[in-house]
Amino acid sequence: MGLKPTQYRCAAESLLRRFRKEGSLPRLHPLVDLCNAVSLAFAIPVAVLDVAAVTWPLQVRYAGGDEDYLTFGGEMEHPAAGEVIFADEAGRAHARRWTNRQSGLSAVQDTTTAVLIVAEALHDSAVQDVPELMTAVVAELAATWSVPSPAAVLTSAAPRFTFGV
What is the DSSP letter of 68? Predict the structure, then answer.
């Protein structure tokens, strides 16, 4: 993607580095904590988006440069043209650099009632690893919260996923 790998680390790599350094991860929200643990276990980035904050549809696309991105620190940024983002119909970027930097706008909160969980991988064994990760997440969601969790793997041949928002 043209990014400096040590400046913009993969989300899973950043979590692993933080875990190795500190021996634990901060507790944020039970669902986010679960997805962080799964991300660490599989070394695959996992994002959790509050669907109520998204103006549907959500697309993975190149930024035009005018999209709004809210940092977790509360600052508004605009991804550079050509950067890969998760953009909604309202022109807001909910993730930058794929899922390496999630927006504060769609971060899970105590008031969140529905989420979209996204795992992304491009490594050689991703075609096996992502379905295994999805199976683990779905099983944990069922065991912990007893919620149905529809799942899909998106590919260039199957680029869409529709679920009840």
Answer: B
Q: How many CA atoms lie within 13 A of 83 on its CB side?
A: 25
- Distance set, CA 160 to CA 8, 34, 50, 59, 94 (Å): 27, 25, 19, 9, 17
* 55 vs 27, higher pLDDT: 55
Rounded CA separation 9/25 (Å): 17
Beta carbons of 68 and 76 less than 8 angstroms apart: yes
pLDDT, greater one: 100 or 136: 136
Question: What amino acid is encoded at 112 in this protein?
Answer: T
pTM exceeds 0.90 for this model: no
Burial profile 35-58: b = 16 or more Cβ within 10 angstroms, e = fewer: bbbbbbebebbbbbbbbebbeeeb
Question: 118-152 as b/e, with b when 16 or more CB fall inside 10 Å?
Answer: bbbbeeeeeeebbeebbeebbebbeeeeeeeeeee
| pLDDT confidence of residue 115 | 95
Reduced to 3 states (helix: H, G, I; strand: E, B; else coil), residue 116 is strand
Reading the block at residue 36, the tokens are 């962080």
Residue 90, Ramachandran bin (φ over 0: left; ψ between -120 and 50: alpha; else beta): alpha
